[in-house]
Amino acid sequence: MIILDTNMILRYLLNDNKEMADEVEKVITQGNAGVTIEVIAEVVYVLKGVYLIQRDSIRISLLNFLLEIQADEKDVLKVALETYGKQNLDFVDCILYAYNRVKGYEIKTFDKKLKKLLTYER
Q1: Which of 40, 57, 72, 84 could, after both became Cys, cross-link 94 (CB 3.0–4.6 A)?
Q2: Which domains occur in the chain, in start order?
Q3: CA quadruple 52, 90, 74, 42: dihedral positive or negative?
Q4: Whole-angstrom Cα distance, residue 90 to residue 68?
Q5: End-to-end Cα distance, the chain
Q6: Confidence check: pLDDT of 37 > 80
Q7: What is the enclosing helix (H) or strand (E) of 23?
C-alpha cells in the first residue's frame, strides 16, 4: 500500500495544482493508495482552518475520497466525518465519538460537548 500524506490529498481535493493533482490521481487509480486517520485529521484541520471550507463540504469531499482509497478504520472515519458535518466538535473529538459508536470503546473526557454527545446517544 502507498500511504498518501496531507499535501497530496489537499492537492487532489482542491485541484489547485493540476500537475500534482494528476500525479495523485495516478497513484489512486493504481488501486493501492491508502490513508491514516492521523492524515485525515490534518486534512480536516487544514481545509477548515486555512482554506475556510465549511464542515459539510469537508464531510462530503472526504467521504467521497474514502471511496477511492484504502484506510484502516474506514468505518470509524466515516462516522467521524458524518459527525463532524453535523456537530460543532473538533474533528479529533468526532474520531473519539466514532470509536465509541463503531467499536464500543469507552471514552473518558472532560470535554463537555463530547461528553454530552456520548451521553445523549446512549
Answers
A1: 84
A2: 2-120 (3.40.50)
A3: positive
A4: 25
A5: 37
A6: yes
A7: helix 18-29
